[in-house]
Amino acid sequence: MNFLSHYYFDRDTTNCYFVLGTVLPDLLKNADKNLVLHPEKLIHTNGAVNSIIEGWKKHLEVDRYFHSSEFFLKHSHNLKLHLLPVIQGSPVKPFFLGHIAIELILDNLLLTTNKLTADSFYSHLSSCDEIVIREFLEFSGMKEPEVFFNFFEVFKEERYLHTYTETQQIAYALKRICMRVWKNPFSPVQEVAMDEVLLAYRGMVLPDFMTVFNEIESKLSN
């Protein structure tokens, strides 16, 4: 799941460090795709640091339920098939595209159906003290925390998740993600065609997209 979909499960919490933890694995991947941390079994003397660890564990749990759900397996596969004809010649792997596309569509639907707001998400991130975050990163074994903070400050300042309310921006967000792996993933013509596919598929998913969130919430509460 993407940032806002993870946030959905803890949208009512008042603990900004827990919220940060629920999205930190993906934030770190954005900052440095080669970074691998496993803090989930650690315990710290600082309660705020432990909140980040607990949020991190929640992230792993939600992803496990989501990626094994019938919803994800069905729609990531179908999106791959829908996108395959319009990305011929692109270096991007179709299965990767289908996987990321359904996650971005879910974020868009959460925003456009008013299930949550991007402002509340960013408010949580901005409330976190850098000293606590740095303590978590160093405790988890990160050698150069500045790599993360350089990315994190730009992420908070740009607030690009707001663009997810514009359905035509889903293809652009997809391109941004792919550019972390491939320098020129799509041609302008392919981007336009992807927009059309994603817009149509969003309409197909809209009536029942909340079923996957309800399913995961049920599993989390057991």
Q: Which descriptors apply to this entry?
A:
single chain, 222 residues, mainly alpha, 11 helices, 68% helix, 0% strand, globular, DUF479 domain-containing protein
SSE pattern? HHHHHHHHHHH
Find the structural class using helix and strand composition.
mainly alpha
Number of domains: 1
Level of helix content?
55-70%
How does the SSE layout of this entry go?
Elements: H1 3-8, H2 16-31, H3 47-67, H4 70-83, H5 94-112, H6 118-127, H7 130-139, H8 145-158, H9 169-178, H10 188-205, H11 210-221
Helix pairs in contact: 2-3, 2-6, 2-8, 3-7, 3-11, 4-5, 5-9, 9-10
Task: Write up what this structure looks like.
With 222 residues, the chain is mostly helical. The protein has one domain. Helix 2 (16-31) packs across helix 8. It is 68% helix and 0% strand. The chain has eleven helices and no strands. The model has no long low-confidence stretch (mean pLDDT 95). It has helices at residues 3-8, 16-31, 47-67, 70-83, 94-112, 118-127, 130-139, 145-158, 169-178, 188-205, 210-221. The two termini are 20 Å apart.
Provide a concise account of the structure shown.
With 222 residues, this protein is mostly helical. It has 11 helices and no strands.
